[in-house]
Amino acid sequence: MGTETTTPATGIEKADAADTTVDRSKRSLLKGAAATAGVAGAQAITGFPLIWAQEIKDIELRHVGVSYSVVKAIGDQASKDLGFKVTMQNLDTSAAINRFVTQPNSVDIADVEGWQAKLATKRGVLQGIERRRIKEFDNILPIFTRGEIGGKVVSRQGISPYEAMYITKPDATDLHEGVTDWMTFLPQVYNADSIGYRPDLIKHPVTEWKELINPKFKGKAAILDVPAIGIMDAALCFESAGEIKYGNKGNMTRKEIDFTIDRLIELKRQGHFRATWTTFDQSVQLMAAGEVIIQSMWSPAVAAVRVKGMPCIYAPVNIKNGREGYRGWCNGMALMRHLSGKKLEAAYEYLNWYLSGWQGAFVARYGYYSPVPSTAKKNLSPNEWAYWYEGKPSKDVILDPYGVPMEKAGALRDGGSFMERVTNISCWNTLMDEAQYMNKRWNDFKSA
Amino acid sequence: MSARSNTAGWLYVSPLVAVLIPFFLVPIVVVLVASFLEHDGYGGMIAHFTLENYKDLFTSELTLRLYLGTIKFALLTWIGTLLIGFWIAYFLVFHVRNQLLAIGLFLLCTVPFWTSNIIRMISWIPLLGKQGLVNSVLMSTGVIDRPLAFLLFSDFAVVTAYIHQLTIFMIVPLFNSMSRIDKRTIEAARDAGASRFEIVRYIVLPMSRTGIALGSIFVLSIVMGDFFVVKVMSGGGSASIVSALFEDISVLQYPPAAASAVVLLVVVVIMIAAILRTVDIRKELGR
């Protein structure tokens, strides 16, 4: 696994086509569910009947979530295209989930990760998204509909988006494996995280997680300090070094947690970690200010370091011998339970707009992916598509979503093509069953 | 007569009561109740009385380490702010003859506080970093040949940032206390042959006790309740009581978080009560 290089877009489309047929056959079984969409269903983006336009112009949708997923520029474009107002509000991950659970009425669209969708579903603050009303559902990649891509099963360590996506009734509190009529959340953006490093100071290519705990980089390494995902980065390191084999890195046993934290404490006492980071900006700062030369990092953060004129590479950590691999994450939109009437109609319009391509192209330009690449492709130039999705050298200057040049002509995307990256995801962001114990042990690490 | 003065008394305190009950008392009661509840691990609280949250807290070595760590920061910060704050206030009150100038200089001390305390903290990072100002100056003058790593992401950095942020809370009450000292007392002492040190030791220090106490309350309670400075300036290398509690909240473990909040509240209240025993604030302020 992992040696497969550029899989052209046709590969993705082929997978989609197969997915579509499956869904059509399923759909014939679903005749019972009568249409309620009526007014809004047909025309998503280009103009509405006059009456509808009159009725919706006073609607305001509050889309709340983390800054890398809920982006003001996207909300502004949606408002322009849809004729009602979309307000984007940013909170950090923990503030966001706390708000969804404790003040559900102050949010209309919750931007959640798979594990948050599971939690919010359990708490009953969401309402199911009716699958039939998502126009592009049939074009959503099989990662999300069958838990596989390009014929390969997507890792189930941690909470994969596929696992957290479906419920059997709109008000169900338990997840269901496999496509149903109702969804907990609609994926909108995802990526695979790994390590960032300075190629001018680390002379050999980094392709394994164990480099992060290599004693050579003592005092010059950093790790992510969000317990639930920081511990997975650490687990990838220790597994890579051959110290332990986890049953499920995304849902460890107490024994596995103890091993991981004890090793982290040992490394900390040896002065291995210069710092830990919690936000995108902090990770950019640490690298750009020369504090660290290797750290767990997000792909756009690596790009941000490069924009500051400092060489920085996003390590391709393809799965080998059952080790390594990226830590995947996926954010999607969930409908809060209080939505009803026209506001709910508007929310469906918004969801459909999201998958219609503009947003997919926008996030592609900072290295994230759309669940419906076929629509994103229409909004990207052929060169952009080749660079971001196919992993081919750029023929031209690459611009970021705001039109600022970020890579020169000839640049090649770290980590290769879309297919190479997503097929090498070995675990997903998660909330473990032993979360409370893990948090406590993580604080042991922090206070050691 | 007494009934009327009673009514007047209640009227006087009613604005305070109207603020304190909904915004202080009710939330505290909610936290207190939550700390005795069970939870389901998915953010749900189960209305069933348990002492488990407190038991976990008091039987965990982590709690002890967190308290020792936070108290260490609190004491170091207290010493730093007291030393600096005392001498700044002393200078302003006793050495600047012109009262207008003294007040002007006093206001100058507050200028850095016109920016947010997050910015004031972050601005230490380019100064103290491996390639920061301090290290580059020391390296270029040949004092050191490799950057001093302890300057940033260390206890040193945390305490530096605290002292920078909190010294004003020491200066203000000290300035206030010292301004109330009758200058003639000092002149008399000087006439009687007291040295400058003796004047500070036997007159200024005892008479500004209230200021010290008030300043200490501000500084200690802020440090005990902080988590952001520790997080950023230690580079995530240290935890504090509140940062640990915050991790619980981030995965919706409300009852354990509530229990640590209650314990922290009790500890801080005891600290403040102990400080207040050393001075009679009411008497001193009414002077």
Topology overview:
The complex is a heterodimer of chains A (448) and B (287).
Chain A: H1 9-27, H2 50-56, E1 60-65, H3 72-82, E2 85-90, H4 93-102, E3 109-113, H5 114-123, E4 126-127, E5 129-130, H6 142-145, E6 148-149, E7 152-153, H7 161-164, E8 166-167, E9 182-183, E10 186-197, E11 221-224, H8 227-240, H9 254-269, E12 273-277, H10 280-288, E13 294-297, H11 299-307, E14 313-314, E15 326-336, H12 341-354, H13 358-364, H14 373-378, H15 382-388, E16 398-399, E17 405-407, H16 418-422, E18 425-428, H17 435-447
Parallel strand pairs in A: 1-2, 1-3, 11-12, 11-13, 15-18
Antiparallel strand pairs in A: 3-15, 4-15, 5-9, 6-7, 8-9, 10-13, 10-14, 10-15, 16-17
Helix pairs in contact in A: 8-9, 9-17, 10-11
Chain B: H1 2-34, E1 37-39, E2 45-49, H2 52-58, H3 61-95, H4 99-109, H5 117-122, H6 124-128, H7 133-140, H8 155-179, H9 183-191, H10 196-207, H11 209-224, H12 228-233, H13 241-250, H14 254-277, H15 281-285
Antiparallel strand pairs in B: 1-2
Helix pairs in contact in B: 1-14, 2-14, 3-8, 3-11, 8-11, 11-14, 13-14
Instruction: Using the alpha-carbon principal axes, give the shape of chain A.
Output: globular
What structural class results from the helix and strand content of chain A?
alpha/beta
What is the typical, i.e. mean, pLDDT of chain B?
A: 90
- Per DSSP, what share of the residues of chain B sits in E-state strands of 2 or more residues? under 5%
CATH overall fold name of chain B: MetI-like fold
- Tally of DSSP β-strands of chain B: 2
Could you write a compact summary of the structure shown?
The complex is a heterodimer of chains A (448) and B (287). With 448 residues, chain A is an alpha/beta fold.
Protein traits:
heterodimer, A: 448 residues, D-Maltodextrin-Binding Protein, domain 2, 2 domains, 11-stranded mixed sheet, 3-stranded antiparallel sheet, 37% helix, 17% strand, disordered N terminus, B: 287 residues, MetI-like fold, two-stranded antiparallel sheet
